[in-house]
Design brief:
By secondary structure, the chain is α/β, with parallel strands linked by helices. Helices cover about 40% and strands about 25% of the residues. The structure holds nicotinamide-adenine-dinucleotide (NAD). Nicotinamide-adenine-dinucleotide (NAD) binds next to helix 7 and helix 8.
Length: about 475
């Protein structure tokens, strides 16, 4: 069987491509249909035709669909988590959390749409009333990366549908399985034909068409900074609304007064869980001199007790790298770190396991400095660098000395320092005594500088992107 694309309410075949399990390269998760340029155009045309009717449904009707989708995800939670772990390589525990998150997002936006904000103003003119309301934007193109195969699609699709938009969804090629299952659940919930369309396939074909087609009114993209900048140039030239979530090089500052076990846990989780493949990963550990050696010793010990293995084994704590290309990139950066003069204090070795997979031991560099490319460029793997700082002021300076600005963290027992850091670090999200990764769906998500562009995702803030404001002047 080939899993097809969903276009105008129908499942459509296409050129098949294989979805391979990174924990076991001999395991083919499934064959999925690659959408063609014509398929993509048909999906966009269908979304455009469906928009008017869908946009006029009541919020209660749309909330009902979202509730059904959430229930569908919950009912299949175990199978979806297993599929996620199998196609992406996240551990089962992490995969289960991600699936639950997807259901929570659909439930949250089912509630949000029932309280879509508006405003009434008194006019400066006698007898005139001003009403500020929100309307859907139109056809939205959603382009997602491989590292959160169900949560990122959910945090875009749920608000898009809730606020009355129609959707053309293009998942990353490495993870079509969760995308197809989600599309199936949306279809099964009875959503009218054309309101939601799935087009799996190449970024250069499907993604490029979504970006340039004038019938797509808005694009929400999550992925690398390079791809994002290209999309931004094309989409903004035709005045489409754009939202971009891109790379990170997130600092976690550890001060002398930090609770050591807590700081080590924050670094371990933030830098290495999900195999370090998170945009919010704590890839730069900036450590004050007085705690440096104790921190490095304790973190190295914690790394030695990690179990790198098949994502679906119960005792695995770090799954495989997602594919061969990403593994090659991780290894190139590990070589680069050594040649730049950083000290590889732990890991960085390709591991062999009973099945053929992309297994890499978590790599920790010490004696790094912030000018090294390993400290400036996003690696997107289980690789972290430790940079020594003389004091808090230098640590803050180093934290901000980056082109990115997604998430930043500090471990300290000083309320004053944590408050100073919270105010002065240049990042969209700040964590105090917590890993830089790990966020709530009820709160705004996004960054500054090279990490993000446009309005925030998630929480109540998603309404900014998925609606447009109308100001009405009314006299009776
Ligand atoms: P990527 O940029 O290679 O691909 C992202 C998506 O864009 C995929 O669906 C891809 O097919 C598509 N694409 C590729 N070329 C395109 C084109 N020319 N036109 C339109 N679409 C195109 O990213 P990836 O490797 O899938 O994901 C890893 C990256 O995602 C990392 O840089 C990571 O930091 C980032 N990311 C960011 C966030 C965030 O919220 N800031 C979250 C997760 C991942």
């Amino acid at each position: 069987m080939v899993y097809g694309n969903l276009i105008d309410g129908e499942w459509r075949d296409g050129d098949p491509f294989a979805n391979i399990n990174p924990s076991n390269l001999d395991d083919v998760v499934g064959e999925y249909a690659r959408a063609s340029l014509d398929d993509t155009r048909d999906a966009i045309a269908a979304a455009s035709r469906a928009f008017w009717g869908w946009s006029l449904t009541t919020p209660q009707t749309r909330a009902g669909y979202l509730e059904k989708i959430a229930a569908g995800i919950e009912a299949r939670c175990g199978a979806l988590a297993d599929l996620l772990a199998r196609e992406e390589g996240k551990t089962l525990r992490e995969a289960t959390g991600e699936v639950i998150r997807a259901a929570q997002l659909f439930r949250f936006y089912a509630g949000e749409v029932l309280r879509t904000p508006g405003e009434r103003l008194d006019s400066a003119r006698e007898g005139v009333e001003i009403q500020v309301t929100r309307e859907p934007v139109g056809v939205v193109g959603l382009i997602t990366p491989w590292n959160f195969p169900i949560a990122i699609p959910a945090w875009k699709i749920a608000p898009a549908l809730a606020f009355g938009n129609t959707v053309v969804f293009k998942p990353a090629e490495l993870v079509p399985g969760c995308a197809w299952e989600l599309a199936h659940l949306i279809h099964d919930a009875g959503i009218p034909a054309g309101v939601f369309n799935l087009v799996m396939g190449r970024g250069s074909v499907v993604g490029a068409e979504i970006t340039s087609n004038p019938q797509v009114n808005a694009i929400s993209f999550t992925g690398s900074t390079t791809t994002g900048s290209g999309i931004l140039t094309t989409a903004s030239a035709r005045l489409a609304k754009v939202q971009m979530e891109m790379g990170g090089k997130n600092p976690l500052v550890i001060l002398n007064d930090a609770d050591l076990p807590r700081a080590v846990q924050a670094a371990l989780d933030g830098a290495f869980y999900s195999t370090g493949q998170r945009c919010t990963a704590s890839s730069r550990l900036i450590v004050e001199a007085g705690i440096h050696d104790r921190f490095v010793g304790a973190l190295t010990e914690a790394l030695a007790s990690q179990v790198v293995g098949d994502a679906r084994n119960a005792d695995t704590t770090i799954g495989p790298v997602v594919d061969e290309r990403q593994l090659a990139q991780d290894l190139r950066y590990i070589d680069l770190g050594k040649s730049e003069g950083a000290h590889l204090a732990f890991g960085g070795e390709v591991l062999s396991r009973p099945t053929r997979g992309h297994y890499l031991s978590p790599a920790l560099f010490t004696e790094a400095n912030n000018q090294m490319r390993v400290c400036r460029e996003e690696i997107f793997g289980p690789v972290a660098t430790v940079i020594r700082a003389a004091n808090y002021e230098e640590a803050l300076h180093l934290a901000n000395d980056t082109e990115f600005g997604l998430s930043a963290g500090i471990c300290t027992s000083s309320l004053a320092r944590s408050m100073h850091f919270r105010r002065n670090v240049q990042a969209g999200m700040v964590m105090v005594n917590l890993p830089t990764a790990g966020v709530d769906y009820t709160a705004p998500f996004g960054g500054r500088k090279g990490s993000s562009y446009g309005s925030r995702e998630q929480g109540r803030y998603a309404v900014e992107f998925y609606t447009t404001v109308k100001t009405a002047y009314v006299v009776g």
